[in-house]
């Protein structure tokens, strides 16, 4: 297989599964964690390695090293593997998704942005979701008529803060996720609830149910619920470990224990809360995005730009939502008509944000 993002949490979990089942890794692609990448090279002996920066090429202990976006696309194109694990973060994951589909490969997809901005033009039949929420929805499908799909959110860093204090929260505050440690961008997206808007859009493109929603479950043990037309509901409960969705994406079925099972008596109780639009202002965009899902490119491009500025301490946390709303006011009158439009929209949106 080809693993894009091999040093991140999804990539390392995939390699754990590969080691357990003695699977061949043809391509490893990583960002800047060259030390971990070199240890992966020793263990898995890939044929091709890709790094983000040209000046890191000489630090990689391998004879065939590509770099940058073009390096990733070239590695996908010349690889013999039928499966690409796309665990890249952000808009940069879209072109590799398109290249994998173009070359006839299947994709185990953890890159949210591919579906958020281009779901209309992707062959969903060749995509297996490995987000815990979308895997849970897939796992619950039973052939019965569906009325509603609901995914859950942790609530992020500010779920228990006084609402009045959230606007001016610092970078350090936003990166204190209450349940686990993740990458910086996804942690900020969790705090603003953008991450859950992304996931609703993903579910829209993957499953297209009559209704979609999200609620807060603070323990992050119940990942999704499907309500069927007959009035019954089925929930997916598990410890959070990406090895299970990855194993299903690799093998199609799993018949041995991958996760430690949940002990309901130790859980004691699960609590559920609505997502408060005062605490998470961007949740006001939910219905618009689900009714006009191509506008996902507006949310993604604006959020990409603004989170980067926030992480550099150039804007306040509350300015992320303020400026995303301004971007929607500017761009919601037009939508991308094809894949080329998506890349043009991305540039126009970022140009607009530089001037406000």
Keywords:
four-stranded mixed sheet; alpha/beta; Rossmann fold; 16 helices; globular
How is this structure best described in words?
The chain is of the alpha/beta class. The protein is built from 16 helices and eleven strands. The protein folds into two domains: 2-129, 3-Layer(aba) Sandwich (Rossmann fold); 133-354, no CATH class. Strands 4-3-2-1-5-6-7 form a seven-stranded parallel sheet, with helices on both faces. A four-stranded mixed sheet has the order 9-8-10-11, covered by helices on one side. Helix 3 runs parallel beside helix 4 (94-102), helix 9 (184-192) packs across helix 14 (296-311) and helix 14 (296-311) packs across helix 16. The model has no long low-confidence stretch (mean pLDDT 95).
Draw up the topology in text.
Elements: E1 2-4, H1 9-21, E2 27-29, H2 34-44, E3 48-51, E4 65-67, H3 68-78, E5 83-86, H4 94-102, E6 106-109, H5 112-118, E7 127-129, H6 132-140, E8 146-153, H7 163-166, H8 171-174, H9 184-192, H10 194-207, E9 212-216, E10 222-228, E11 233-237, H11 243-251, H12 264-267, H13 286-291, H14 296-311, H15 317-331, H16 339-354
Parallel strand pairs: 1-2, 1-5, 2-3, 3-4, 5-6, 6-7, 8-9
Antiparallel strand pairs: 8-10, 10-11
């Amino acid at each position: 297989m080809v693993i894009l993002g091999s040093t991140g949490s999804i990539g390392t979990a995939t390699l754990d599964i590969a080691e357990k089942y003695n699977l061949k890794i043809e391509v490893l692609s990583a960002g800047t964690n060259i030390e971990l990448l070199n240890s992966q090279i020793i263990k898995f002996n890939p044929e091709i390695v890709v790094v983000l920066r040209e000046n890191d090429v000489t630090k990689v202990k391998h004879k065939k090293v590509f770099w940058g976006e073009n390096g990733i696309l070239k590695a996908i194109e010349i690889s013999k593997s039928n499966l690409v694990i796309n665990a890249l973060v952000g808009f940069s994951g879209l072109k590799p998704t398109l290249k994998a589909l173009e070359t006839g490969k299947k994709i185990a997809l953890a890159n949210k942005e591919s579906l958020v901005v281009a779901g209309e033009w992707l062959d969903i039949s060749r995509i297996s979701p490995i987000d815990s929420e979308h895997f849970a929805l897939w796992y619950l499908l039973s052939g019965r008529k569906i009325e509603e799909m609901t995914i859950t959110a942790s609530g992020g860093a500010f779920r228990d803060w006084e609402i009045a204090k959230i606007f001016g929260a610092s970078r350090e505050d936003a990166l204190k996720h209450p349940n686990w440690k993740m990458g910086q961008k996804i942690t900020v997206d969790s705090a603003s609830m953008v991450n859950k808007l992304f996931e609703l859009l993903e579910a829209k493109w993957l499953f297209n149910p009559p209704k979609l929603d999200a609620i807060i479950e603070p323990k992050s043990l119940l990942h999704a619920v499907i309500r069927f037309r007959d009035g019954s509901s089925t929930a997916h409960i598990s410890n959070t470990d990406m090895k299970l969705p990855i194993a299903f994406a690799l093998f199609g079925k799993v018949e041995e224990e991958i996760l430690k099972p949940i002990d309901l008596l130790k859980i004691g109780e699960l609590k559920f809360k609505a997502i408060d639009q005062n605490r998470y202002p961007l949740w006001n965009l939910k219905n618009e995005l689900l009714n006009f899902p191509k506008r996902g490119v507006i949310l993604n491009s604006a959020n990409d730009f603004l989170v980067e500025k926030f992480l550099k301490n150039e804007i306040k946390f509350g300015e992320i939502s303020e400026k995303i709303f301004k971007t929607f006011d500017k761009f919601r009158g037009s939508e991308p008509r094809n894949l080329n439009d998506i890349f043009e929209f991305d540039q126009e949106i970022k140009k607009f944000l530089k001037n406000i």
